Amino acid sequence: MSTSGYTSLPDDLPSPEDDGLAAHLPGLELPIINLPATDGRHIDLSGLSGLTVVYAYPRTGVPGQPLPEGWDAIPGARGCTPQSCAFRDHFADLRDAGVEHVFGLSLQDSDYQREAVERLHLPFPLLSDHRHELTTAIRLPTFEVEGAKLLKRITLIIEEGAISHVFYPVFPPDRNAADVLAHLRRGRQD
Predict the structure, then answer these.
(1) Is position 3 within any domain?
(2) Is 103 contained in some domain?
(3) The domain that contains 39 carries what CATH number?
(4) Which residues contact 154 (CB under 8 A, 6 or more apart)?
(5) Which of 14, 94, 157, 165 has the fewest CB atoms within 10 Å of its CB?
C-alpha cells in the first residue's frame, strides 16, 4: 500500500456505533500508571497538571506493509494516520486553547510507535500501553483482529488527573482534533 493510502480515508468507511463501553469514563480519576513514551519518558497521566488530550487509536500501519485482512470493513478501525496528522496540524491551536499535553495512545510498543512519530513529524509523543495496564485499569474499549487486542478509537480530555470529557465513538478520525478544539473553544460545556 502506498503512503497516501494511510493518509487518506476511503469514502465508504463504516461508522462505529456507540456500544456504551465508554459511559463509565467521564469523571473517572486515573490510576497511577507510568506509560512509556516515544520521547523516552514515562508518563503518569494521573499526575499531570493542566489540561491533557489523549487520543487512543487501534494501531498505526507502516507504509509498504499490508493492513490486517478486512481492516476497512471494521467500523472505526481505519484512520490512525489521518487522526494523528490532524492532531499534529491542530497542535498549536490546541495549545492556544489551553491544552498543556497532547498524546496519542495505542497498545503497540514504543519502538513501533517511534516510526510513526518520525514519519508523520508529530510534535508530541505517543504513549504505549503494550502491557494493557491502563486499558485494563480503566476499562478502555477494545476489539480483536487477527488475535491481537487493539484499542477502539476514543479521545479523553483529562483535567488534573480526572477524565472530564470523552469523545466516543470517534468518527471520522481525521475530524477528531477539530472536534476536540471546538469543544474546548466552547468552554468544555458539552
Answers:
(1) no
(2) yes
(3) 3.40.30.10
(4) 22, 55, 56, 140, 141, 166, 167, 168, 169, 170
(5) 14
